[in-house]
Amino acid sequence: MAEVEEEEQRSPQAAESDGDYPKLVKTKDFFDVEANASRTHNRKDADWGTILKLAFQCIGVVYGDLGTSPLYVLPSIFPNGIKEKNDVLGVLSLIIYSLIIITLIKYVFIVLAANDNGDGGTFALYSLICRHSKASLIPNQQAEDRKVSTYKLDMPNRRVKLASAVKSKLESNHAIKYFMLFMTMLGVSMVLGDGILTPCISVLSAVGGIKEAVPTLSQDVIMWVSVVILVFLFQLQRFGTDKVGYTFAPIIMLWFFSIATIGLYNFIKYDPSVIKAVNPYYIIQYFQRNGKDAWISLGGVVLCLTGSEALFADLGHFNVRSVRLSSCTILIPSVLLAYVGQCSYLQENAADITDSFFKSIPKALFWPQFIVAVLAAIIASQSLISASFSIIQQSVALGCFPRIKVVHTSADFEGQVYIPEINTFLMIACVAVTLGFKNTIQIGNAYGIAVTFVFVITSALLVLIMIMIWKINIIYVVIYILTIGLSELIYLSATLYKFVDGGYLPLLLAFVIVTIMFIWSYGYRKKYLYELENKISVERLTDIVSGKRINRIQGLGLFYSQLVQGVSPVFTHYISSIPALHSVLVFVSIKSLPISKVPAEERFLFQRVKPGELIFRCIVRYGYTDSFKKQGSFEQDLANQLKEFIRDEQGDNVDNEIESVDKALNDGIVYLMGEAEVMAANGSSWIKKFTVDYLYNWLSRCVRQPDEIFLIPRKHLLKVGMTYDV
Quick check: helix, strand or coil at residue 679? Predict the structure, then answer.
């Protein structure tokens, strides 16, 4: 395997000079990297009209979770009541500095800068690292990859010793590669856990506020009302982020205005002296007074940060400037005022801690604020639901999650997607958790673990990016680790303390999701590497197609394969069974790159297999936010690019060959696709046999097949079966 990876990951120059793989030719010349970068997803940064539009939308999609956290944070911090008035100041100081350090400094100003051509999330960080080093377990630094302008490969300067040392260690150690992939998968599973727990705790907290007006209402009634609301919420997802964002944004704007106004009112009316909490010394005093109890209470404090990861994970739906603008002007000021107001109220009404948010609302405003709170809680769930769609889309494209349907819901913003299977899974899980726990206390314990795990994993990958890609001064890296990184580890330790009291839920969910992802990734990788080791070279392919027993038939044949260099071994199986080839034959290799988008004009790379023959290899490159075109559009684009490639060759028979391609199109297209089953080779361990023969093959049968993903019409499809012993 190591030899295979080394062969695949040579420099472009070495790959192009290899006798087996003649030089791949672009369909046209392209501008330099900087010029192309301006045409990618982040082109919205230069258009302030678009930025303001996206900033408004992201208020309705991204900030609901962070914005509704005042509903449940303070009761979670003081489950046994407030012992001393100064404890409120210590907790308020913790909340203020947690929001500033982790949400604002870490996510808004640092993590957003680590976006992958406009996309965020755990897999975006992972793909960024893999693109700048040979850290991927599947080769991803081939000539066909680097020729995409948005690949933006900038290898560490050898003079930067630390960056080079980290890169070398990462590339040479398989255990580190597996561990990094595992951590990425764990991060994905925790984001899904957030997507399940956010709707539960937000809706239950908001609906539970009705007890302030109707004390006789039972918890079971609140639970079932919450379930109905949750089911309704997930039915809205099919309309897409664009429509949902415009619909929800005015409500969340009203929510932010109301909590900020009420917070300011309470601050002035009750105890303006809580402004002293900006002095971090109150945090030290809080820990001195309460010791272990103060540490345990951090599991509640961290809930004020829920939704911070969504700022990054949802980035593909919006862009960096829109998120930064709306975070600094709307989100952070409003939420801070809400917490300051609640704490000011509690200084004189400590007994109301169990329902501090609704009790601090002026009586005349209770019902309007209750209605807005319920609506905001429904919307709060949107941030992590959208983030779940984005991060699963990335996982599928990079071969780390089973094939599922990804629906692109906006023609204007490519990153806005909806995944029906994930939406159904989240809905069922949300209903189950709500019915199982019934209240917010245990859900909050589970929620805290999911949130802090994602924080720590993001920071770990970010440190690698700082050292290896950004190559910033090591002093700044150490400062980040000792401040933000250490704070997150302390929060994680506090949430793990509540493992038995509901904290086990996200870890149990993570175990299931990571297991599925690992099985799929392992089988996918074994299948790919088998094809790579047994590929048909260009010379061998030339001999096969030149054989006397081969008949040529009219039409265009598209032979699909995931293999980029060489031809899949399935082709020999096909030709031995059906000794006929179409007048124009194109070996189509679908290549998913660890980048968000591939410019449309750079999607196709062509190579002629044999001079004088209309047999070509075509590599079709996709980023993980690119959508596959519908039937007809893809074939027409491929044919147009093929004709342009023939013109660029400037051979003697250009007109005749272009005429032949047009005739083949008119005669009809036949799609040929290998359907390979992988089986563990003789002598393999029972674990490998069980994983490959049963688990991976079972998953393969349950999920969408490649012809469905590539939108290939069934009536023109011919599948060729073969078994790989891996």
Answer: strand
CA–CA gap between residue 344 and residue 265 (Å, rounded): 10
- Please state, in angstroms and rounded to a whole number, the distance separating the CA atoms of residues 521 and 563: 16
Q: Cα separation of 690 and 696, whole Å?
A: 9
**Cβ atoms of residues 293 and 83 within 8 Å:** no
Torsion of CA 368, 370, 371, 374, to 10 degrees: 160
Contacts of 444 (CB under 8 A, 6+ apart): 72, 76, 201, 299, 300, 303, 502
Letter string b/e over residues 190-211, b meaning 16 or more CB atoms within 10 A of that residue's CB: bbbbbbbbbbbbbbbbbbbbbe
Q: What average pLDDT does this structure show over 473-499?
A: 92
pLDDT tens for residues 503-556? Answer: 788 888 889 989 999 898 888 888 888 888 888 877 787 777 777 778 888 888
**DSSP conformation letters of 86-145:** HHHHHHHHHHHHHIIIIIIIIIIIIGGGG-BTTB-SHHHHHHHHHHTSS--SS----HHH
Tokens for 286?
């809080």
Query: Judging by beta carbons within 10 Å of its beta carbon (0-12, 13-18, 19+), is residue 648 exposed, middle or buried?
Result: middle
Identify the three-state secondary structure at position 243. Answer: helix
Give the Cα separation of 386 and 555 in Å (integer): 43
Among the residues of 356-419, which ranges form H helices? 356-359, 366-397
Give the model confidence (pLDDT) of 581-600 as tens digits: 888 889 888 877 766 678 87
Contact 114, 462 (CB under 8 A): yes
**CB-neighbour burial class of residue 673 (10 A; exposed 0-12, middle 13-18, buried 19+):** buried
The reply to whether the predicted model has a pTM over 0.85 is: no
CA–CA–CA angle 654, 656, 660 (5° rounding): 115
pLDDT of residue 286: 94
Residue 172, both tokens: 């040479």
Could you report the per-residue pLDDT of 64-100, keeping only the tens digit for each?
Answer: 778 888 988 998 899 888 888 899 999 999 999 999 9
> 359 near 281, Cβ under 8 Å?
no
Mean of the pLDDT values across residues 561-587?
A: 82
In whole angstroms, give the CA distance from residue 23 to residue 456.
44
Q: Are strands 669-679 and 407-408 parallel, antiparallel or unpaired?
A: unpaired
Q: How far apart are CA 34 and CA 152, in angstroms?
A: 9
Q: What is the secondary structure of 511-546 as a DSSP string?
A: HHHHHHHHHHHHHHHHHHHHHHHTPBPHHHHHHHHT
Interacting residues of 71 by C-beta distance below 8 A, sequence separation 6+: 202, 205, 206, 209, 357, 373, 377
Q: Give SS3 for 360.
A: coil
Q: What are phi and psi of 407, to 5 degrees?
A: -105, 120
**AA identity, residue 520:** W
User: What's the mean pLDDT when you consider all of the chain?
Assistant: 80
How many residues does the structure list for the chain?
Answer: 726
Q: What is the rounded distance in angstroms from the CA atom of residue 233 to the CA atom of residue 372?
A: 15
SS3 per-residue string spanning 426-445: HHHHHHHHHHHHCCHHHHHH
**What percent of the chain shows pLDDT beyond 70?**
86
Binned at pLDDT 50, 70 and 90, residue 156 comes out as very low
Mean pLDDT of 212-226: 82
> SS3 sequence, 15-80?
HHHCCCCCCCEECCCCCCHHHHHCCCHHHHHHCHHHHHHHHHHHHHHCCHHHHHHHHCHHHHHCCC
Return phi, psi of residue 696, to 5°: -65, -45
- Give the SS3 label for residue 724: strand
